[in-house]
Design goal:
- By secondary structure, the protein is of the alpha+beta class.
- It folds into 3 domains: 114 residues, no CATH class; 128 residues, no CATH class; 70 residues, no CATH class.
- Helices cover 46% and strands 19% of the residues.
- It has 9 helices and 14 strands.
- Strands 1, 2, 3, 4 and 9 form a 5-stranded mixed beta sheet that branches. Strands 10-14-13-12-11 form a 5-stranded antiparallel beta sheet, covered by helices on one side.
- A hairpin with a 4-residue loop joins strand 12 and strand 13.
- Helix 6 crosses helix 8.
- The longest helix is centred in the middle third of the chain and has 45 residues.
């Protein structure tokens, strides 16, 4: 390929005036920013790429909006080396509404970044290419070597992470697997899709646990996979638990509705019960029961917001106190939609409210 189309590899060095004079002394032409191009297959070629050069992209050509093209690789000698230790300390998986959540520790990570070209040191000598690469390699070894403060701190964190994943982390994975099996047992046959999702998530985690069990040594790669899968698995299990809980709640409500309708229900609801269709009429059941057991009360619409009552009247306070004799959770609020104070509490697991001005007795 010609020089205009072949990708290049180059080293960039900042030279001082002394460095420029030294280049002239050696018979080289240079600028303050001195570019050295490498020949593919040369003895410096492999060493150059071991130092993680940055890709260089072509400038926009103006023809279309295609992705930029990498035209070469560049390594700036002597840039500032920035070492940062990121440690995500042990923490519980986000609480999705249940008391127990598994603890995870994704582990420490050593991040190395480099300053811009302007942070690179200025050279007073025009050095050979292999010597420049050796200088850069030595600088990086010094920044990341075992004697550096960052490396010592990182090594201590890694040791603590390894100990934690062996003891707490692996047990956490077993707890998640137990939770998955429990949820699968609780899910009804009608929730086959949810069950399949929980089973797939469980099997992915189980595969890593099994690999750890048979491994001669628990490698850092396996530890990382384990700690990565636990927080990914838990939301799926939690969703399965939610679905199973909702199914159980529906069964419980239907059993309670069956007993109530048999003794108190209207002719319509008793016929629904006789026809085996009471589960399709639970809304009507709730309305009938609310009207009989809480006359004057209404269902609170989902998302409807009430405000705190300010300077309540004596009538409002009397209504609240009377409501509290039946349900201590009752509270006094203000309903913006109707511009009136209301007593708010719960019935059949749903919010209800009573306008203070209602002529009916609260109970």
């Amino acid at each position: 390929m010609d020089n205009f189309s072949a990708p290049y590899a180059r080293v960039l060095v900042r030279l001082s005036e002394l460095g420029l004079l030294d280049a002239v002394r050696q018979g080289e032409t240079s600028a303050t920013l001195d570019y050295r191009y490498l020949e593919p297959g040369s003895r410096e070629w492999s060493k150059f790429f071991e130092l993680d050069p940055q890709p260089v992209y072509s400038e926009a050509s103006g023809y279309g909006d295609g992705p930029p093209t990498v035209v070469g690789a560049e390594l700036v000698i002597g840039r500032e080396i920035l070492v940062e230790i990121v440690n995500r300390a042990p923490t519980n998986v986000d609480d999705f509404g249940f008391d127990t959540t598994p603890p995870v520790w994704t582990g420490p990570e050593l991040l190395v970044s480099y300053g811009g070209t302007d942070t690179a040191g200025v050279f007073d000598r025009y050095l050979p290419l292999d010597e420049l690469l050796t200088i850069e390699s030595t600088r990086r070894e010094a920044a990341l070597g075992s004697d550096s403060a960052e490396s010592r701190e990182f090594a201590a964190l890694v040791a603590a992470w390894r100990e934690w994943t062996t003891s707490v982390g692996l047990q956490s994975a077993h707890d998640v697997l137990d939770a998955a099996n429990s949820v699968m047992n609780d899910l009804p046959a009608t929730e086959a899709d949810v069950r399949s999702e929980v089973e797939a998530a469980r099997d992915r985690l189980q595969a890593v646990v099994d690999e750890i069990t048979v491994a001669v040594e628990m490698t850092d790669e396996l530890r990382g996979q384990l700690m990565s899968l636990i927080p990914k698995t838990w939301p799926t299990i939690d969703e399965g638990r939610r679905v199973a809980g909702a199914s159980s709640a529906r069964k419980k409500e239907l059993a309670e509705a069956t007993a109530w309708v048999a003794d108190n229900g209207s002719l319509r609801l008793r016929k629904a019960l006789q026809a085996g269709l009471l589960h399709t009429s639970l809304g009507a059941y709730r309305d009938e029961r609310l009207a009989k057991e809480r006359p004057g009360w209404s269902w609170r619409r989902q998302g409807e917001e009430f405000k705190n009552a300010i300077n309540p009247s004596e009538e409002a306070l009397d209504a609240l106190l009377k409501a509290k004799t039946v349900d201590q959770r009752a509270s006094l609020m203000f309903r913006p939609e109707s511009q009136e104070p209301v007593v708010v509490c719960w019935f059949l697991g749903r919010g209800i409210y009573l306008p203070v001005s209602a002529p009916e007795e609260p109970f």
